[in-house]
Every structure is written in C-alpha cells, then in structure tokens.
Design a protein that fits this description.
Strand content: 5-15%
Bound molecules: heme C
Number of helices: 18
Helix content: 40-55%
Order of helices and strands: HHEEHHHHHHEEHEEHHHHHHEEHHH
Distance between the termini: 115 Å
Strand order of the largest sheet: 1-2
C-alpha cells in the first residue's frame, strides 16, 4: 500500500514536473514567436527585401544589382544558408554587418548597404531581426554574384577611412524634450526606414550632406523631393493625414503619387506599417528643419491649350507637338484639361509635384517607366511609354521632351524646360556622378604632391650633406 502511494506520489510529482516543463517551453516558444514577429516587422520597416530579393519566390537570396556612380554593387544572399548565405553569422557578427558595415570575415561593406542609417537600430530590434532571419527565412543555397568595382574602390579597406569620416556608429538616442510619438517617428525615419539615404543630397564622396537633411536628391532616374517642413518647397503644407495616406497607399490627393523607388518602398515597406507608426513619422517630419527652395504644390490649373493649336497651317512645332502627343496618349486617363478623374485614381496633372520644378526627372521617368504599385488598397497602374512592349505608343526622346514642356507650361508651373538630351540621360538611368574620375584625379594629385614632397626632402638632405662635407 505504502509502495503504491509512494509510486503515485512520485508519478504525480513527475506529471506536475512535466506539465510545468511543457508550460515553460510553451512560454519560451511564444516568447520566441513574439521576438520573430517583432523582427519581421523591423525587416519590413527597413525594407531589407528591396535590395536583397531579386526573385520573389526566393526572398532575401540576393543578386539584386544596385547601380552606383562607381559601378554595380550586388546585394548578397542573406538567407540563413550555411554555404551561400549568413547561416554562420553569430548575433554579434550580424549586428556588425547591419549596423557598422563589417562583414563576418572582417571585410568592409560598401555603403550601398544603408548601415549608416541602420546604425540607429536599437539592440532590442537588432536581436529580434536576427531571430527572424535565422528562424523564419528559408535558406537558399545559391551564392550571389560577386561585386567587382574598378580600382581604387575594389579595396574594401578604403571604407574604413570613409566610415571614420562619415558614419555615426551610435544607436538612436531618445530626445527627452520631445514626445514618445516624435521619438518613435525620428527613430523610424533616421534608422530602419532610412528615408535620408534617398532624400538627402550627397557630397563629393557620396556622403549624405547633413546640412541638407531630407532636402531632396537624385536617386537614379528619379528625384526624391525635399520632404523637410518648408511649406513651399518641402511638405510643410501637407496635413498629417496626407502624409499618412501617401506613405500607406502611395498617393496624397491633389499633391503627389509615388512612382519608382518610392513606389517600391511604399509597396514592400510603408504600406505594411501600423498606422500609429505612420502617424509618428508624420509628427517627426513636421519638425524637420525647413530647407527653402522653389514652390512645388498648388501650381497650375485645369487648362486646355489644344484648341489654340487646332487649325494651324503646316506641321505643328514646339508646344503644339506636345499638345498633340498629350491628347493622343495621356488625355484618356488624365483628362483633356489635365484634371484627372473625379475619384483621382487617374490623378490631375496640375496640383501635382511631378509637374512642378525644379526637377523634371519624375515626370520623364513616369512617362518612360509608367507606374506599377500594389498596396493592400489595390493596384495602381500607368503604362510605360518608354518601350514598345504594350498596347500604348512608344514615345521618342524628343517627343517626351516636347510633351514635358507642354505639360509643364499648361498644367504645371513652367518650372522645367526639358531637352531630348535630358530624356536620353533619364532613359540611361539618370545623371551619373563623376566620383570615379574625381577620386582618381584626387589620387593622382595626392601622388604628385607626395613626389614633390619627397623631391624637396631629397634636395634639402643633399644640400645639408654637401654643406657638412
Ligand atoms: C538599399 C539596399 C539595401 C538594403 C535596404 C539592405 N541591404 Fe543589406 N546589403 C546591401 C548590399 C548592396 C550589400 C552588399 C554590400 C557589399 O558587398 O559591400 C549588403 C550586404 C548585407 C549583409 C552582408 C552579407 C554578406 O556576408 O555579404 C548583411 C548581413 C545584410 N546586408 C543585411 C541586411 C538586412 C538585415 C537588411 C534590412 C535590415 C538589409 N541588409 C537592407 C544592400 C541593402
Ligand atoms: C529608395 C529611395 C527612397 C526611400 C528609402 C524613401 N523615399 Fe520618399 N521618395 C523617393 C522618390 C524617388 C520619390 C518621388 C516619387 C514620385 O514622385 O513618383 C519620393 C517621394 C516622397 C514623398 C512625396 C514628395 C513629393 O513632394 O512628391 C514623400 C512625402 C516621401 N517620399 C517621404 C518619404 C519618407 C517619410 C521616407 C522614409 C519613411 C521615404 N520617403 C523613403 C524615394 C525614396
Ligand atoms: C491608362 C491610364 C493612363 C495613361 C494613358 C497615362 N497615365 Fe499617367 N497615371 C496613371 C495612373 C494610374 C497614375 C498613378 C496614380 C497614383 O499613383 O495613384 C498616373 C500618374 C502620372 C503622373 C504622376 C507620377 C508621379 O510619380 O508623381 C504623371 C506625371 C503622369 N501620370 C503623366 C502621364 C502622361 C504625360 C501620360 C501620357 C504620356 C500619361 N500619364 C498617361 C494613368 C495613366
């Protein structure tokens, strides 16, 4: 009897133990699940997929090529594959790569990987990001292509000097004089969402010019406009709701639509953020020091200049050609007066940042590439006119230039005057920087100066020896 009691007792203790253990492991795994979910959210806010995915069925497997002024840089495979990806990275190595641009083998990454912004990511978010990549991303065992930049940029160690000059290694520091919402917005904008990597102009060494923070910059064929709080040249006149709507859906009615790399950022990243985070971003942006410049909104009005050009004798020229191209190709959707449709699914071309100065890039790039943006709110599509492979006309460089000048002067603010050469340049991927030649010239000048110094030292040394002998 006592033996039975003893066994029952032991059994129940074991059962209780097992139950407690099960509960414990359930607690741990739900904790891990929370961590992974948080990491996935950080990855979305950081848009890691924008650069590290080239084939949508193999997320993060790399091979996406980023064209930089000094050559093509390939974003690598960051799936947890032990042979081709980052499966052997420890958490500390992962953090060094993402926040400081140091690969596990010690080599420096090029700042095409936005570690200068990711340096702001907090330790807690970094831990979550690591848990997500190691546990929830499917390993892909195909290595990505290698980056081969021309001399001197193939020397990765040169980035150590660049980092010393331009990278700030601190994580985000809360500004206690500001609200929690402001701090959340500042954290997202400066850190994970890396808005400044596109919207801040760069200096001669490709560093972001901190004095022109979010002041507008060329990103390949597109122009990421001034988004400081300036009411004329920035977005200071936008309501918070308009900013939230733009980031969440890619459009702010009567103001702007997102094409190009911004459309991608909206599609993959911002449209999946919580509304409270988009509101936090809007709160912070309202406070970013204003950078003045030409006015970009509320310009133009509904006009119809085509009638002026009807009945002209002979072949039309100048704006008349633009008017013809417009009515043949664009008016079906954007309206003959440029007013768009009532619901603004097809937006008006007046009161539109793409048809105001100073840069014509977004107008030209939109006509060449069209718009193709999917968000939870639906699919937005404008056909590209730069290629022949659709039912719409392909427009030539000079046709696009004349169209741009017609649209700018009739619906826009007349803020740009486009030549065929500018269209050729945007078609080829945007104005190229002459960084490579600058650095090479700098190296030659450096070498010449070094040779002169050596020569002077040698002359002085010989003179002294001659005197002493
Ligand atoms: C704007 C493009 C871009 C974004 C966004 C981006 N990366 Fe990268 N990343 C790159 C490029 C390009 C490289 C390769 C750079 C090089 O070879 O020097 C790279 C390299 C890396 C590496 C080094 C891997 C190795 O061993 O080669 C890691 C790790 C990494 N990225 C993780 C991330 C994570 C995590 C995110 C999101 C938080 C992210 N990246 C977002 C462009 C990007
Ligand atoms: C990968 C580059 C890139 C990143 C990252 C990026 N943007 Fe943009 N953004 C652009 C481009 C390009 C445009 C112009 C799009 C167009 O007109 O079709 C733009 C347009 C905008 C506009 C509309 C401005 C106007 O006047 O038309 C706003 C607002 C904006 N971005 C805010 C942000 C914020 C906030 C972030 C970070 C949370 C951000 N962007 C991150 C490239 C980027
Ligand atoms: C089949 C319908 C359609 C045609 C034809 C069309 N568009 Fe569009 N257009 C759109 C849609 C849809 C958008 C994007 C609306 C959005 O993003 O919410 C757009 C956006 C634009 C924008 C704003 C882009 C930005 O990034 O800010 C411009 C400028 C523009 N179109 C000019 C033109 C011109 C010029 C033509 C003629 C060559 C043209 N469109 C022909 C449907 C069309």
């Amino acid at each position: 009897m006592t033996a039975l009691k003893f066994m029952l007792c032991v059994g129940s203790v074991m059962l209780a133990g097992a139950a407690a253990w099960a509960q414990d492991s359930a607690a741990i795994s739900s904790e891990t699940a929370d961590l992974i979910a948080r990491g996935q959210y950080v990855a979305t806010a950081s848009d890691c997929t924008a650069c590290h995915t080239s084939n949508p069925s193999e997320p993060y497997a790399g091979n996406h090529v980023i064209t930089s002024p000094v050559g093509d840089i390939v974003a690598t495979n960051i799936t947890p594959s032990k042979t081709a990806g980052i499966g052997n990275y420890t958490e500390a190595q992962f953090s060094d790569a993402v926040r400081h641009g140091i690969r596990a083998d010690g080599a420096r990454l090029y700042p095409a990987m936005p570690y200068t912004a990711f340096a702001k990511i907090t330790d807690a978010d970094m831990k979550a990001l690591y848990a997500y990549f190691m546990n929830d991303v499917k390993p892909v065992d195909t290595p990505s292509k290698k980056t081969q930049l021309p001399f001197p940029f193939n020397i990765r160690a040169s980035m150590i000097g660049w980092n010393l000059l331009f990278a700030d290694a601190d994580t985000y520091q809360t500004d206690t004089s500001k609200s929690d919402q402001w701090n959340r917005g500042a954290y997202l904008v400066q850190g994970p969402a890396h808005c400044s990597t596109c919207h801040t102009p760069r200096g001669v060494m490709m560093q972001e010019k901190s004095g022109d923070y979010l002041g507008g910059a060329q990103v390949g064929p597109w122009y990421a406009p001034n988004i400081t709080s300036d009411p004329q040249s920035g977005i200071g006149s936008w309501s918070k709701d308009e900013i939230v709507s733009y980031l969440g859906t890619g459009r702010a009615e009567g103001k702007a639509q997102a094409g190009g790399s911004m459309a991608e950022a909206v599609e993959h990243s911002f449209s999946h953020l919580q509304k409270s985070d988009l509101e936090a971003i809007a709160t912070y942006l309202a406070n970013v020091p204003a950078k003045s410049g030409p006015s970009r909104f509320d310009q133009g009005s509904a006009t119809n200049l085509t009638t002026e050009f009807c009945g002209i004798d002979g072949a039309p020229s100048g704006l008349a050609v633009g008017a013809q191209i417009y009515s043949a190709n664009c008016a079906t959707c954007h309206g003959i007066n440029g007013q768009g449709t009532k619901d603004q699914y097809y937006p008006s071309l007046y009161h539109n940042s793409a048809t105001s100065g100073p840069s014509a890039s977004n107008f030209i790039a939109t006509v060449l590439n069209g718009i193709d943006r999917k968000t939870p709110q639906g699919h937005v599509f404008m056909p590209p006119f730069g290629t022949q492979d659709n039912a719409f006309n392909a427009l030539s460089d000079s046709e696009i230039a004349q169209l741009a000048n017609y649209v700018s002067s009739s619906f826009g603010d007349g803020g740009f005057e486009v030549s065929s050469d500018e269209v050729v340049q945007i078609r080829a991927g945007g104005p190229s920087s002459n960084l490579l030649s600058q650095v090479r010239i700098a190296m030659v000048i450096g070498l010449v100066i070094a040779l002169i110094i050596i020569a002077i030292i040698w002359v002085v040394y010989r003179a002294r020896r001659q005197r002493s002998s």
